[in-house]
Amino acid sequence: MNVSSPEFVFVGIFFLGFGGPIFAAKVWTHYRLKKGRLALKNRKLADESPVTPFDPKPEPAPGIVLRRFNLPQRSYLRRQGRWANLGYVVGSWVLFVMFCENLPPQMADSSGLALTLPQRVWYAYLRVGFVFDLCICGVAAALFAVSAIQRRSSIDLKSLRMRPLTLRFLFWSRTGLLLAALLAAIATAALGFFLLMLIFYGPVWNHVPGAVAGQGITEQQAHYVISTLQTSPMRLVLSLLTTSTLIFSLVAVIRSLPWSFTPRSQSTLATTLLVLYWTIGSMLLVLFPIWGTESLQVARVLFLYNDKDVGPAPSYAYALIPIAIAAALLRLAQFIDGRREAP
Amino acid sequence: MTPFAIQTHSLVKTYWVGGRKIRAVDGLSLNVLEGSIYGLLGRNAAGKTTTIRMAMGLARPTWGTIEVFGLNPARDPERVKVLEQVGYVPEDKVLGGGTARSLLTLNRAFYPGTWSDELARKVVDRLELPLDATNLSLGNKTKCALAVAIAQRSRLLILDEPTTGLDPVVLDALLRLLVEDCTADGRTIFLSSHQLTEIEQIADHIGIMDRGKVLVEGPLDDIRSNFRRLTVTGANLPTRGDSILNARRDAHATQYVIQRDPDAFALDLTRNGAAIVDSAPLSLNEIFLALCGTSASQETAGDEDEETNPGVPA
Predict the structure, then answer these.
(1) What does the alpha-carbon distance between residue B65 and residue B74 come to, in Å, rounded to a whole number?
(2) Of B59, B80, B124, the CB nearest to A164
(3) What is the least distance, in Å, from the CA of A157 to any CA of chain B?
(4) Could you say which residues from 55 to 94 on chain A have a Cβ atom under 8 Å away from some Cβ of chain B?
(5) Which fold has domain B4-218?
(6) What value, to the nearest 5°, has the Cα angle with vertex A92 and ends A86 and A93?
(7) A151 CB near a chain B CB, below 8 Å?
């Protein structure tokens, strides 16, 4: 494949990635406003009273999932579902665009290893691109968790705590839906990204070399490179999902703590996010390479990869560890949240 | 089964504000009979809203207990059973975003057993609530919160300052609605306010609280008959006693505000040679001012004693 040919396509993707939705939103808002004005004008021409009496529609028939809940619970879930849908759409689009940053051909590995283009593309992605994606997913997870555990001053929090729903239900439905939206957004964005990679470079993950040669490369390093290249996209997506779940639950606990709701919390929200970002970033980029072999073991336990000493991918069974930790953290967040008083 | 809609025992709620411990509610014992219209009166920061928030499970008691229909509103699943039976208008009238129509539709789904669309339409009509306005004024927010709570047809309606921002015409319509539509079938209304005139119009029971404590509680008629202003002349008139709320000596006479059994007190005075120049009942406003004024002066005296004799209880 000609290395320079897809560049224009990628520039186009990035331009459309962020400019497109803004433009579409503008057009949609303009259309809605115009439609509303026209309807009002028509009503006035027809000399109709613009006020229609309160006559709500009956509840639509609940689906298989919602049927398990009572009407108040279904109403709340539908309301939260709308937010989760919005989070999913925006999240998957933004993540997809960010993931695609790793696609341009100039991102292919140029470390001097004797590899073919598909192998260099795949190795570069595993070495740099994936860590970048992991950080992006971490930030997205933190933002979703901040949104899930509402501020003490939240209008929604207060108004819903007056309704006949248990605090446990309020917590799990909101947190669960947003976590599901986050994971679905990551999975969708990753699927889109790997499809695009497949279209432009072919199945790069299948081009595993039998041996790796390069200037000054040791046998052990060559072994690492080969075993790293054996990593499957499925394993990477699972790692993105488990790590995001872990970060989501960690931020949920921090967000539930009483000091997160002092009056100054709004002004320090940005600082909190920055600190979290640095925590995640340092965990992935600095801590593991410094620790050497031990860091690899820690990374493996948490079903993570690191950026320098990319080793063989951890087995699928390790994915259960971050999931179990995240479940325990979310349970802790629910306990703390249940102790909170409404504003 | 308890005859009380709301009952509190030695209820205490403390907050930490700027490193200082504030007792918002201080040993409160209230008894709100089911089927009554109970007006909780008090000055600003008397502890009314904090008490209501504890009744709604929005705040937890620091000490003591609060029960709504015999249930603990601070603990699930009892809390949910309480909330199913209570309509609530919060002090800040915050119900979430959106138009009145969307809020009514949303809340309708939370109370499928009791909600009445017909009553919702009636309240919207009577209170002149704009259903599709997006930016609601304070008055319209109040109307919206009232419409949501009233249409719920709950066993207990808790209204925290329900007249905020309402004009006199709407206020009159609201009071009519409350009496006509919200007290049927033994339902209870518990409203807090410092607007005494409105409370006096509809309440049959009242509680007056100040600085987190109840100063007086009971049927409004009983309270009215217990309080009286007496103007008395004579020598060696008492200045303290169980019945005397306060006594003020003028040049020619002594003016008493009596809080208990005024006839017996007057009889005692006349037996001791005093002459009753005037005996007048007190309006609710006068009772409130006398009670809160006395409570404030006792508190100040207590503080002064504390400063001059630290460690000695006032």
Answers:
(1) 10
(2) B80
(3) 9
(4) 55-56, 59, 71-72, 74-75, 79
(5) Rossmann fold (3.40.50)
(6) 95
(7) no
B131 touches chain A (CB under 8 A): yes
What is the mean pLDDT of the segment spanning B84-107? 84
With CB atoms and an 8 Å threshold, state whether B110 touches A166. Answer: no
C-alpha–C-alpha distance, residues B107 and B122, integer Å = 16
* Residues in chain A within 8 Å Cβ distance of B95: 159
Outline where chain B has alpha helix (H).
48-55, 78-84, 100-110, 117-126, 138-151, 168-181, 196-202, 220-226, 262-271, 284-308
Tokens read off for B102: 């969307």
Nearest residue to B290 via CA among B263, B261, B258, B254: B258
Residue A310: phi and psi, rounded to 5, are -60, 120
* Domain residue spans of chain A: 1-56, 71-339
Determine the Cα–Cα distance for residues A322 and A244; give it in Å rounded to an integer: 10
Chain B interface includes A47 (CB < 8 A): no
Residue B305 has pLDDT above 70, yes or no: no
Nearest to A287 by CA among A309, A313, A314, A256: A309
CA of A62 to nearest chain B CA: how many angstroms apart? 13
Residues of B in contact with A56 (CB under 8 A): 104-105, 108, 117
Write the residue in A74, A156, A342 that is nearest to B96 by C-beta: A156
Residues of B in contact with A156 (CB under 8 A): 96
Check residue B186 and report its DSSP letter: G
Query: Which pLDDT score, from 0 to 100, does residue A38 have?
Result: 78
Buried b (16+ CB within 10 A) or exposed e, A307-323: bebbbebbeeebbebbe
Name the stretches of chain A with pLDDT < 70.
1-18, 40, 43-51, 106-107, 109-111, 150-157, 211-216, 259-297, 305-312, 343
Task: Mention every residue, 6+ apart, whose C-beta is less than 8 A from residue A230.
Answer: A208, A312, A313
Does the CB of A139 have a partner CB in chain B at under 8 Å?
no
Q: Give B301's contacts (C-beta < 8 A, 6+ positions apart).
A: B314
B56 chain-A contacts, CB cut-off 8 A: 162
> How far apart (Å, rounded) are the C-alpha atoms in residues A124 and A129?
7
Where do the structural domains in chain B lie, given as residue ranges?
4-218, 227-308
* Strands B37-42 and B188-193, bridge-based pairing: parallel
Residue B310 has pLDDT above 50, yes or no: no
- Whether this model's ipTM surpasses 0.90 comes out as no
The beta-carbon neighbor of A75 closest among B59, B88, B106 is B106
User: What Cα–Cα distance (Å) separates residue A286 from each residue in A280, A289, A292, A296, B240?
Assistant: 10, 6, 11, 12, 78
Bridging pattern class, strands B213-219 and B4-17 = unpaired
DSSP letters spanning A72-124: HHHHHHHHHHHHHHHHHHHHHHHHHHHHGGG-SGGGS--SSB---HHHHHHHH
Q: For the segment B218-261, what is each residue's pLDDT rounded down to a tens digit?
A: 999 888 888 888 888 877 787 777 788 888 888 788 888 888 88
Q: Mark yes or no for CB contact A71/B109 under 8 Å.
A: yes
State how far the Cα of B130 lies from the Cα of B5, in Å rounded to an integer: 33
Instruction: Read off the amino acid at residue A249.
Output: S
CB contact under 8 A, B109 and A53: no
Q: Are strands B4-17 and B37-42 parallel, antiparallel or unpaired?
A: unpaired
Q: What percent of chain B has pLDDT over 70?
A: 92
In sequence order, the β-bridge partners of residue B157 are: B87, B189
